[in-house]
């Protein structure tokens, strides 16, 4: 976070994000297999990934990640016997009483992701 906050140029920030994504390993092209429309009430809204005006070149990298070939089992999300998502491998950071901006943003992103991707009644929320 400090590296991002210390750069005021969008090009510098985009470069940092792209370098970070590249450091996570090779992105192998794949295809997303979605369940049939009649089995899904609402798909996650991933349209923001295509916002080239807001994301610049980072949009292209994120779209590559979205389409990447998935291998192996997901180590971050498991489901209980009643299909409730469990996030056993996520750190709780319980010892942080006054977390810095980076940890507070992480909490916000985690909350947003749980609502966006795992909240069963998201389709009932009003769009504002």
Q: How are the elements arranged and paired?
A:
Elements: H1 2-5, H2 10-23, H3 52-55, H4 57-67, E1 78-79, E2 85-86, H5 101-118
Antiparallel strand pairs: 1-2
Helix pairs in contact: 2-4
Task: Tell me what you see in this structure.
The chain has five helices and two strands, in the order ααααββα. With 128 residues, it is mainly alpha-helical. The protein has a two-stranded antiparallel sheet with strand order 1-2. α2 packs parallel to α4. The model has no long low-confidence stretch (mean pLDDT 85).
Q: Tell me the fraction of residues in β-strands, as a range.
A: under 5%
Total beta strand runs:
2
Helical stretch count? 5
Instruction: Show unreliable segments.
Output: none
Order of helices and strands: HHHHEEH
Which oligomeric form is depicted? single chain
Q: Please give the order of strands in the largest beta sheet.
A: 1-2
Distance between the termini: 29 Å
Radius of gyration: 17 Å
Mean pLDDT: 85
Which secondary-structure class do the elements indicate? mainly alpha
Helical content class: 25-40%
* Main sheet record: 2 strands, antiparallel
Shape verdict: globular
